Amino acid sequence: MKPPKVSVLMPLYNTPSDHLKEAINSILSQTFSDFEYLIINDSPDNHELDKIVKSYDDQRIIYLKNPNNLGLEESTNKLIDQARGEYLAIFDHDDISLPNRLQKEVDYLDKHPKVGLVSAQFKVFGETNWISNNPVEDNEIKLELAKTSCVSHTSAMIRKSVLNKHNIRYEKKFFPAASYRLVTRLALVTDAHNLPDVLLHYRMDGSNTSLKHSKKRTAAREEIRLEYEEDMKSTQLKQIFKFDSVEVLGNSRNQDKGRYYKAKRGSETFFVKSGDHDYSSEFQFSKAVYAKDKKHFIEPVDFHKGDPNYFVARWNTGTDLDKYLKQKDASEKEKEAFLDDLYEISKVLWDLKIMHRDLTPRNFMVVGGRLVLVDFYWAVTSDYNKDDSARDSAQIIILHYLGEDYAAGLYKWDDAYSFVKIADYIFGEDKAKKHPLVEQIAKNIGKRVITPDPTAFYKFITEQSKHLARQSEQLILQQERITELEQQYLDILNSKSYKLGRKATAPYRAIKRQK
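^ that's the sequence the OP posted. Answer follows.
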């Protein structure tokens, strides 16, 4: 006998009688008729459900009953394994499918062979009422799935061949969010689509499993979301950069702002980072410094601007400076070599007018016994003789490295000051302060970010004082105006005419209050 085109799968568990009848009737009245209707009762002691299902005289219904309660995931997997249809229509036991649901979904899958998952919009009814607005196109769905579930599971239709090819089934460990897990796994291996039509009414009556186990569901969904995002990026990296393999580094999976990967292509190994930040400028900075000094900078390879963004560099086998100094008791000779490296790095940046505004030990690696600057996330270019972005947060500081000549001035955040702090971290503040290389770096602060001209400094202070004085004058005027208005209000309240008016209108106001 020819197998049906569609298998409708519906697990039951202590379903209210009237809800079950509505659900069954909505499937049996579909405009599309070439389907089998697999129903499994996972509440063995509930004989009322047996009576209801068996009361329908329809050859398309195939009724199963678990001898013991297996749970939603295992029960649905049993239905998947038994289903003969090319397409599987998922359906919850208390929802209502609109008459054209199956026809619309079958038509779409028939016309789009690359799509393995199709769903639709739905209308929520019961305790609350609203209509879904899930994204429609494949790329929109896959991006949104990294944030939240955006495919209605109970109105979904899936190609069974995709489930079998990739060994995808419902996983009990993700209860009560196993449906989100199934959808994210499908999204990694096939195209998905949400029809813009409302094809299902979703019942929200307070008894929903997702509501009963809301805390557990939230935790499971977050675990699924993180794993999906990780897998999606790995897949995307392979597609964009033709990598053979991609491995997530460390605990970057738990970082909100970015992740780091080790990727391979043939015999080559690469370091990749991803995030919301546009890495195009970082790629250009990395190219410029690497062309000038291949010892102290990483080799940039490629970048991708999109959602998400990627930066690819040649892999360097080494240790983060922070970890290196904490794990190993570096000798004075090693520390001296690090200061030499630090000075060479600062000179390259100086010559290219590149300013890294937030240098920390995390920005450096120890590779083959030398320091390598690996991060240009906060870098900008600047002509220090003109106003630039570094002046956005002007401050006054005292630099204890250089004495009174550089003690006061207009300070702008700059990598030179950061380099001095890195030197302190490596060598110890007391020793670094006396080191000639550190002093040379510190002098660059004077050239770049401190205005040693007392006239310029006095002008800055004067302008700030005038600005504060103007603000004070405005505040005084405002306060005087408020005091004046307060007095006018008090005068009105105390006036004879106001009191007479209140007395005359008292009866009217009493009637108005009664109304």
